[in-house]
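Model: You mentioned two targets. I'll fold them one after the other.
Researcher: Yes, keep them separate.
Model: Target one:
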Amino acid sequence: MNKQQSLDTLNSYNKNTLMETLQIEFIDVGSNFITAKMPVNSKVHQPHGILHGGATAALAETVGSCASAFFLNDSNKIVKGIELSINHLKSKKTGEVFATAKAIHQGKTTHLWEVKIVDEEENLISLCKITNIVLNKK
């Protein structure tokens, strides 16, 4: 599967989900990473007019979980997030944020990913670790 086919596949999973609501779009995939973007506007603001930490966490979990499933590439398995830790370092009012997941550990049953969320100028907005469990489909 080439890069564009991979992105088309990843983006096809967003239909009728929270990812579609938040306008999350996968924009890059490599041999050991996946990147998605999300617009920052009133739909993802908290009451003070800045990016809501929950929206940021949803972006991080989306990218980290999808990375596990994508690189596992086993239709007999399902990936579920079991722990998310996120530090919000900088606020953002408008524009876009970009989340890149890179593997720290990919075992048979658990995966650990680091997700960096940056703005258009590469300023670090949030830093996340997500742990996923790999289970057999029932």
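Model: Target two:
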Amino acid sequence: MDLIAIEEIRTLKYRYLRTLDLKQWDEFTDTLTADATAEYGTATQGRPLTFTNRDQIVSYMRDALGPAITTVHSCTHPEIAIDGETATGSWCLEDTVLVPEYKLLIKGAAYYSDRYRREDGGWRICHTGYVRTYEATIPLGDLPGFKLTANLWGG
């Protein structure tokens, strides 16, 4: 039974990342409980970002990752522990953010620490957050020959 729950949570996290990157906000919203909290450690913003409910999380992501920004989030090394209708998880994150408007590339890595709850017949994220192991900003002008040849949002 735990193996099924672990696979469901793994799929949930991958859906969270996919819908974030593709800006599919309704489906992204559905990965979170209404009372979900988040703490994203980030040097770019100069302080950790803290959110106390799903609406805050989704609103921030929608605004911060608008059509001019392209992201790719990849998580590996899942460690998931099931405890009845709740679970915890740790994930290794690597992310890339392209901001053509500011000619900037952001690369980073972190470890997510998540909590999950089963509700309405499926698993949802009730807390997510990470602490960066590193974050680097690279001006695109410092990458000779760099050219963005495809961008789903045309930004």
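Researcher: Noted. Anything on target two?
Model: Strands lie at 32-40, 49-51, 70-83, 86-99, 104-119, 122-139.
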